[in-house]
């Protein structure tokens, strides 16, 4: 069951990535809203994290109430970042990821939102520190976030996020790692 869920996430990520790359250049003809660019900073018990993120949100809602006061949206996020492990002599390590994200939000340009997502990540190495070693560089990244859209000229957003990485038991050891993050993004 768990492998089926992660297979679905992996296939969804690949299809959404292909659609984002194949989208027409003209904003009117595209399936996606203009790209959102952002940065996220966070910390966990074993490392700190900093990421740059680009997100493509579908223009159409997946679901909405008849008044559109509650809407469910889908987006794809591509990220690149670095982890700074705590303690020992561990150096900065890289993280590249692709994550489909489901968002619940209101109808207006401003207001609160909540997100969940599960995607795939590739780490530059498996040794986080002397006491934490992953068995694979391939990791799944699960997240839950809550934030606010400001509705300004850049359509700025600020969110807090809980992010968990693990390989879903593909191979042992699978210690996982958690981060608490603050994210800012704007639409361009």
UniProtKB/TrEMBL annotation:
Main subcellular location of this protein, as a coarse class: membrane
Signal peptide per UniProt: none
Sorted UniProt keywords: Cell outer membrane, Hydrolase, Membrane
Site annotation Critical for activity: residues: 167
UniProt key word Membrane: yes
Membrane topology recorded in Swiss-Prot or TrEMBL: Multi-pass membrane protein
MF-aspect GO terms: acyloxyacyl hydrolase activity
The keyword Secreted appears for this protein: no
Pfam family name, one: PagL
Catalytic activity entry: a 3-(acyloxy)acyl derivative of bacterial toxin + H2O = a 3-hydroxyacyl derivative of bacterial toxin + a fatty acid + H(+)
InterPro entries on file: Lipid-A_deacylase-rel
Enzyme Commission number(s) from the entry: 3.1.1.77
GO cellular component terms attached to this protein's record: cell outer membrane
Subcellular location: Cell outer membrane
Quaternary assembly: Homodimer.
Function, in words: Has lipid A 3-O-deacylase activity. Hydrolyzes the ester bond at the 3 position of lipid A, a bioactive component of lipopolysaccharide (LPS), thereby releasing the primary fatty acyl moiety.
Family: Belongs to the PagL family.
Annotated protein name in UniProt: Lipid A deacylase
